[in-house]
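4.2 Preliminary Data

To establish feasibility before requesting continued support, the project team ran the inverse folding procedure on a target of 220 residues. The structure was first converted into the token representation described in Section 3, and no sequence information of any kind was made available to the design step. The complete token record follows.
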């Protein structure tokens, strides 16, 4: 990742640690001296005063992550790195890049290290680890699996969710992972004999979570 982005992430992590990793966005905003008010657009201004305006959204989980995303913008602005981050890419991609960095910081705020460590301590690197983080942070499977894959730095890690015959979602830090959404995967056990697998029975159609640590050539 790029230098200004890395600095902004490090700054945000330090600020988050300073308030004991508060996860819920309203108390976190309060602890950081940020006011959240309704507005016509989702926007963050460090000020002073630090203000986040939020459009009303009827879908509560998205509204919650929007606050984390906007707090990510506040962190970038407080670090004084907004222009430097935009400068990391070509001008036409600058705004998208800045939004991605704000979302990445938002994901670290909603899934801070202590929650991730607790999930690893309880379940190792398994499907249960992802489900534990998903429920403790109240995030999507996609968000939790990406965070776990990136946080497990010992070996490349691939986490997939599959339906009856195809892959639905993949998070992977393996450079040669061939799994993609919509890849055919009718029998995960046969394809990945060394994967930790968990089949969820609470769906009408079967769903399987697989965690593959490392990657053996014969499995690719
Ligand atoms: Zn944004």
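Position-by-position output of the design step:
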């Amino acid at each position: 990742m790029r230098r200004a982005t890395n600095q902004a992430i490090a700054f945000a992590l330090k600020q988050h640690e300073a308030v004991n990793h508060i996860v819920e966005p309203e108390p976190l905003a309060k602890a950081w001296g940020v006011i959240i008010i309704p507005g016509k657009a989702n926007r963050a201004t460090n000020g002073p005063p630090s203000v986040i305006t939020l459009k009303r959204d009827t879908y509560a989980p998205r509204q919650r992550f929007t606050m984390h995303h906007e707090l990510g913008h506040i962190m970038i602005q407080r670090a004084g790195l907004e222009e430097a981050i935009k400068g990391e890419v070509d001008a036409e991609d600058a705004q998208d890049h800045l939004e991605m960095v704000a979302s990445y910081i938002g994901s670290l705020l909603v899934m801070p290290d202590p929650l991730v460590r607790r999930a690893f301590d309880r379940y190792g690197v398994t499907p249960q680890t992802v489900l534990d983080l998903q429920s403790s942070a109240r995030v999507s499977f996609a968000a939790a699996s990406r965070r776990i894959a990136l946080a497990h730095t010992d070996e490349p890690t691939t986490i997939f969710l599959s339906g009856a015959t195809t892959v639905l979602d993949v998070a992977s830090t393996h450079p040669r992972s061939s799994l993609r959404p919509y890849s055919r995967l009718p029998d995960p056990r046969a394809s990945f004999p060394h994967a930790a697998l968990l089949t969820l029975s609470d769906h009408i159609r079967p769903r399987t979570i697989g965690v593959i640590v490392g990657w053996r050539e014969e499995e690719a």
